[in-house]
Amino acid sequence: MIQFLLNQELRSEHALDPNLTVLNYLREHVGKPGTKEGCASGDCGACTVVIGELHTDDQGAERIRYRSLNSCLTFVSSLHGKQLISVEDLKHQGQLHSVQQAMVECHGSQCGFCTPGFVMSLFALQKNSDTPDSAKAHEALAGNLCRCTGYRPILAAAEQACCNKPQDQFDSRQAETIARLKAIAPTQTGELNSGDKRCLVPLTVADLADLYDAYPQARLLAGGTDLALEVTQFHRVLPVMIYVGNIEEMKRIESFDDRLEIGAATPLSDCYGALHHEYPDFGDLLHRFASLQIRNQGTLGGNIGNASPIGDSPPLLIALGAQIVLCKGEARRTLALEDYFIDYRVTARQDSEFIEKIIVPKGHALFRAYKVSKRLDDDISAVCAAFNLKLDNGVVSDARVAFGGMAATPKRAKHCESVLIGATWNAATVEKACAALAQDFTPLSDFRASKEYRLLSAQNLLRKYFIELQTPHIETRVTAYV
């Protein structure tokens, strides 16, 4: 059984189909059709809902952390121990919520289909903001698409909603909600079981290891932003899943003198602070990783584990010399991330083995990362590049150069690196290294970019890296796009 709050209503579910999304649960099982399906792939934001979770802040106070996410990519099993808020829950005692009122007064809605998703993103923004902030508003709304309004009135609504925001029913009931969430906090492995399909929800790494050993055919579910597409887009059936999002051990970020250790189930939005502090380019790239809804759900371990050749984080982690800790039963092994990727969607992971955490070395001052995509926000890379050099009196003493979108796997550019190592760091060396990239990669053409464009972009990004290290005041970092 799993338990969660539907606004303030306690829901206990056991026999639901584990392949059921939160979107369809709301619309078909509890009669709340305000949440809309626009794309069923996490691109449009029409299905946005908000999840409330218990959280202890930096001062040690307990509060509720609100996160927007795409309900079309969220399986019901991930609600275990949380609060689900949909657009129907905002109106209170006959009065519109302040974010709804702001949308009305600023004329932020026309056809209205996308409006519930915008309202929920604004609600999460209001809960997580104390003052109007244009950058935060753009970030919060980047995952919501509208074909009618041109966004200006919606941004005006965001400013109004976050300016002198009034107390709402969620604020006044916060203590009660915290108590209710504590009362349903999971204490043992949960389960959804429809007879022919099941999803297990362990609470510890040890329990996960045991379950995965017992069900080696199971699909591991973390954020589900990639896995859920198999259900929503390809109409496949997932007979057995194991949800890892309630394992606190796998959601920790620990900082040591020489490294960061990031649990594989840590949402990308939680990774931002630690990675941006150590490597600003890494943090900046995370801001361009899909949308906030996706970053609130998707995990660093999942972005590695799905072995996509265009995943944004693996090239950066490879360039930094990151390692992953793989767990199987009671055994653990540490593997260089670059050795994890074998071929297209093929990895070195053994049966019943899972990524427990990612180890990111510190101290690489010359690390830079760049992403080229058709849109600045909420888009997949055509080329993602990461450069990490060590210079000794103007000579390259070590080089790690990695790319995504250039091969069947995220991959180091070994020929390029061999040209750089031992050479004087100057324009002539860079041109030789650029030429060597043609030996490292034979990229494919697809709807994102042609093979010629990809190779030229990779070479130009190396030139860009050289120019920025020579004249750091002109850095543009990860803002390159087509």
UniProtKB/TrEMBL annotation:
Residues 1-90 form the 2Fe-2S ferredoxin-type domain. Keywords: FAD, Flavoprotein, Iron, Metal-binding, Oxidoreductase. Pfam families: CO_deh_flav_C (PF03450), FAD_binding_5 (PF00941), Fer2 (PF00111), Fer2_2 (PF01799). InterPro entries: 2Fe-2S-bd (IPR002888), 2Fe-2S-bd_dom_sf (IPR036884), 2Fe-2S_ferredoxin-like_sf (IPR036010), 2Fe-2S_ferredoxin-type (IPR001041), 2Fe2S_fd_BS (IPR006058), Ald_Oxase/xanthine_DH-like (IPR016208), Beta-grasp_dom_sf (IPR012675), CO_DH_flav_C (IPR005107). GO terms for molecular function: 2 iron, 2 sulfur cluster binding; FAD binding; iron ion binding; xanthine dehydrogenase activity. The keyword tRNA processing does not apply. The keyword Mitochondrion does not apply. Residues 192-365 form the FAD-binding PCMH-type domain. It comes from the Bacteria. Its EC number is 1.17.1.4. Coiled coil: none annotated. This is Xanthine dehydrogenase small subunit. It comes from Pseudomonas fluorescens. The lineage of its organism: Bacteria, Pseudomonadati, Pseudomonadota, Gammaproteobacteria, Pseudomonadales.
